[in-house]
Amino acid sequence: xxxxxxxxxxxxxxxxxxxxxxxxxxxxxxxxxxxxxxxxxxxxxxxxxxxxxxxxxxxxxxxxxxxxxxxxxxxxxxxxxxxxxxxxxxxxxxxxxxxxxxxxxxxxxxxxxxxxxxxxxxxxxxxxxxxxxxxxxxxxxxxxxxxxxxxxxxxxxxxxxxxxxxxxxxxxx
Length: 173
What we know:
Strand content: 5-15%
Order of helices and strands: HHEEHHHHHH
């Protein structure tokens, strides 16, 4: 009887995966992407990419799909490749607000670094953080900290001379 339950569970799992794949593949609300080679599930276009001279393969795809802009996906990472200066300028200058942003880095969020200005996505929160950073690093503000910076640097050098083997602890202070 346990083999029947196991077999039924396996069949149910396979049917569920098939339905999910069909839903994703036939969903009309899917994002519209530029043309590009069709990838395999999970690995995407990994096997299509050569180990050297990747730009030659991208140029070949550009000619094959008759488009200056192509779309490829490798292990879930989506990439848009531009093959002409005109298409690059069009995307990066004329439509920059649509395409500007930073990739989400889950590990930085897990480490509690999601607040970092360099890792934060563009938006109102990023603008507020940037405003504070600009005020803090203003040309008139930074010289006020020179004495503090100098004292801390001298203290670090003194500690390094006293116990160089504990350099890691000294740097973290």
